[in-house]
Design brief:
Strand order of the largest sheet: 11-12-13-14-15-16-17-19-20-21-22-24
Shape: elongated
Order of helices and strands: HEEHEEEHHEEEEEEEEHEEEEEEEEEEE
Number of helices: 5
CATH topology of the largest domain: Porin
Largest sheet: 12 strands, antiparallel, barrel
Low-confidence stretches: 15-21
Radius of gyration: 31 Å
CATH class of the largest domain: Mainly Beta
Distance between the termini: 73 Å
Number of domains: 3
Helix content: 10-25%
CATH architecture of the largest domain: Beta Barrel
Strand content: over 45%
Mean pLDDT: 84
Number of strands: 24
């Protein structure tokens, strides 16, 4: 009799705790790329405060849970303590998921495509770059909101989604044979000029040109990059001479993918001599960019209007750049600048009269048309976190000067010997 009572008690206890477990809210993922637990840094980085406001100040991480009734609950955790902070219906949960999707739209779309394909029995070719900097290319054989399983030539990898930095499908900037092994570390610039592509948030690089011009570029977000730098020799000379100043520059650039392999961007560049009355050396340029192509093979058209020495230019500066990856560690890079000027108006002339000994003042109509161009071609040697550019730069110019209806004066030429170019870039 006692055994029956014990068995009955155990059975009722099992049913009771089973029922409780069925009604316990289960953890759900708001963003596969963050995982179940979202800490304060991730909360800030994804701008979640724009849709989840007025949370208590003291919490370590947050987590979403779903009740059997379909209600989504937001819990805050401080150490071992748990606090229910918000409740959301399906519409509210969809808005939160949509917010995360907008933050990493391309990766979300790639993951959703992979999940759909693998469920249908198709194994798409993918390239996965982890937050540790590893790149894995192969066939996706399984995908969920937690794990992506990729089968490559090196074996099968179970990759946590929250550890993935980017996911790309076959044809989006890489080849199915994985010839390169690592992504292009400098697809946001040519020799010096930018493309419309932006650095990833938190990424950056240090660049030095001839060990004289030093600059830092940093991705504030996936769509906003800032940079600044100085020229070392002028800065060093400014310490010893009142007639020399330090050359500094700053740049901010925004860029967005319009569709696969097409980006638009724009920005503002400011530069000048600091420390002397160097107004003639100061400039500011606002520019727009359009980049066509993948990370490894692309071309960019840039158009800018500027103000130099306090005077606005009447014609745009044009930049045409391009790169193509020839091998795993070698790319060909070209960057070319074109500028033309035209002015017409009176020119003041002072002529000496030997009879009276005076200078006579007069004006005459003058037409000036000048064109300047700089063409360059370089070879880029690449490693995953460093590049070296070796190139040749050829400046070309032409001048046209005509006084009233007289025979115009023309001149033009090019550098007899192309100028060498060298830079080193270290990514971080």
């Amino acid at each position: 009799m006692e055994k029956r009572i014990l068995l009955l008690t155990a059975l009722l206890s099992s049913l009771w705790f089973g029922a409780l477990a069925q009604h316990e809210p289960e953890p759900v993922v708001a963003s596969p790329f963050l995982g179940l637990e979202i800490d304060r840094a991730e909360f800030k980085k994804t701008y979640l405060s724009t849709i989840i406001k007025d949370l208590p100040k003291d919490w370590d991480y947050l987590m979403f849970r779903k009740t059997p009734e379909g209600i989504y609950q937001l819990y805050l955790y401080v150490g071992d303590r748990e606090q229910l902070a918000r409740r959301y219906d399906q519409a509210g949960w969809t808005a939160i998921r949509g917010h995360f999707a907008d933050h990493r739209r391309k990766d979300w779309e790639a993951l959703a495509h992979i999940q759909s394909e693998t469920q249908a029995g198709v194994n798409p070719i993918v390239r996965v770059e982890t937050k540790l900097g590893n790149t894995i290319t192969g066939s996706a054989i399984e995908a969920s909101d937690f794990v992506l399983v990729v089968e490559s030539d090196l074996g099968t990898f179970d990759i946590k989604i929250e550890n993935i930095r980017s996911i790309r499908l076959d044809g989006d900037g890489f080849d199915t044979q994985n010839r390169y092994g690592f992504s292009n570390p400098n697809d946001t610039r040519y020799l010096f000029a930018p493309s419309a592509r932006c650095l990833k948030e938190g990424d950056g690089y240090y660049q030095t040109v001839w060990f004289s011009l030093h600059s830092i570029n940093y991705g504030l977000t996936d769509h906003l990059t800032i940079s600044g730098g100085l020229e070392m020799f002028s800065t060093f000379a400014s310490l010893f001479s009142e007639y020399s100043g330090a050359f500094l520059y700053g740049n901010i650039k925004a860029g967005f993918p319009v569709k696969d392999n097409f980006h638009l961007g724009g920005g503002v560049l400011l530069a000048g001599m600091i420390g002397i009355d160097g107004g003639d050396a100061n400039l500011g340029i606002g520019y727009g960019l359009a980049t066509v192509g993948s990370s490894d093979h692309n071309a960019t058209l840039g158009i800018g209007m500027g103000r130099v020495a306090g005077v606005w230019g009447r014609r745009p500066v044009i930049m045409i750049g391009g790169m193509t990856r020839l091998a795993k560690q070698v790319s060909l890079v070209s960057e070319n600048w074109i500028l033309s000027t035209k002015s017409r108006g009176p020119e003041e002339v002072y002529q000496y009269d030997p009879v009276s000994g005076d200078y006579n003042f007069s004006t005459r109509d003058v037409l000036q048309k000048n064109a300047y161009a700089v063409f360059s071609l370089g070879v880029r040697l690449m490693r995953p976190k460093a590049t070296w550019d070796f190139g040749l730069v050829e400046p070309v110019w032409s001048e046209f000067y005509q006084v009233e209806s007289r025979t115009p004066y023309t001149n033009g030429g090019a550098s007899p010997v192309p100028l060498p170019y060298l830079d080193v870039v270290l990514s971080f």
